[in-house]
Structure formats: C-alpha cells, structure tokens
Amino acid sequence: MDSPVVFALVRSADPSGVSGVGVVAWGVLFGDGRAVTQWTGETTGVRQIMVWDSIRDIETIHGHSGATRVVFGPVRDG
Questions:
Q1: Element at 61 (helix H, strand E)
Q2: How much is the pTM?
Q3: Which residues of the chain have pLDDT under 50?
Q4: Are residues 70 and 56 in contact, defined by beta-carbon separation less than 8 angstroms?
Q5: Rounded distance between C-alpha atoms, residue 64 and residue 11, angstroms
Q6: For residue 1, what pLDDT is reported?
Q7: Whose CA is closest to 67, among 19, 16, 29, 11?
Q8: Which of 12, 33, 60, 70 is the most buried (most CB within 10 A)?
Q9: Phi-psi map region of 66: left, alpha, beta (phi>0 left; psi -120 to 50 alpha)
C-alpha cells in the first residue's frame, strides 16, 4: 500500500459565505483511495473531521464548481 499523502482544500471564492477563502481544510489521502479532512475552523470555529471514500466525493460536496481545489503536498496557509 502506498504511503499517505497530505493535501489542503484551498478555496478561491466562498459561494456559501460560511467557510471563507484560502486553506479551509487539511487532509490525508490513503493508498486505498480513502481520505480524511479536518476543517480549519477559521471562520466558524468548527474543526470537524470527516472520513471520505474518495477525493472525488470531497470535490463533489465541497468543490463549489471549481471554487475549491485539492492541493497535494506542503501548502502554506495564508
């Protein structure tokens, strides 16, 4: 099995007006395709952790038609 890979959800626009822009969540992608995300909680104070079956599921729910992208590797917040 491949080693886990870190990623960030980076939002360029906030259509919902809730989570803000920039890095909104940190994540880990596992070798079997599953992923875990933790919201930064910068605007809401909520740091929810979620387990996903795939990156595609994350993009489907939180992608906001391209306003949020998955960025792999080290990402600077800010």
A1: helix 55-62
A2: 0.84
A3: none
A4: no
A5: 9
A6: 64
A7: 11
A8: 70
A9: left
